[in-house]
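Researcher: I'm preparing a figure for a lab meeting and need a structural model of a single chain. I don't have an experimental structure, so a prediction will have to do for now. The sequence is pasted below. Please return the structure as tokens so I can convert it later.
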Amino acid sequence: MDTGSNGFEGMTGRLAAAAMARLNRDMERAAVAELDPAPDDAVLAVGFGPGVGVAALTARLTAGTVGGIDPSSTMVELAVRRNRAAVEGGRVRLVVADAASIPWPDGSFGAVVAVNSLQFWDPLDVSLREVARVLAPGGVLVTLTHCWAIEKRAPVDEWVEMVTVLLRDAGFVGLESRTQPFRSGEGLVLRVRAR
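Model: Understood. Here is the structure written out token by token.
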């Protein structure tokens, strides 16, 4: 993921974060509900932006932990600020990294969630293998992505077909997909399980 070309650093990143915090809030909550983690789970948030979803996860994981990666140092800074008590309490660890190189050992998480970031994972096949690597066997990956963001790359149906092949090749099974309306537009929900 090239953070510079995606415009999520510095003042531009701060402006984007303010918009994301407002517009993506319902998607973040829906992703956590779809994931349905147990209170003691360890969950990784990929591309967590300003940290709204991290806060929703932390509220749900009363005895668990949240790890998070985002390639933007600005987003990490803002998310740490938003989740300061949980970070200081050791329940949340947020780092600058991208999905192609996740700095946690194999099988570290029971679940992974990504809201409006899957379309930036580059290369996508490598990133999906990395996510599979850090998931424990049977762990769940849930992604929610704006359909309009996907359509910048390909029609949604074609994109789902392509991602389905890559997910299978990365070691995932049981793909479920659907579109759902959100305040900021139609979103694609993907749910899959690690072998």
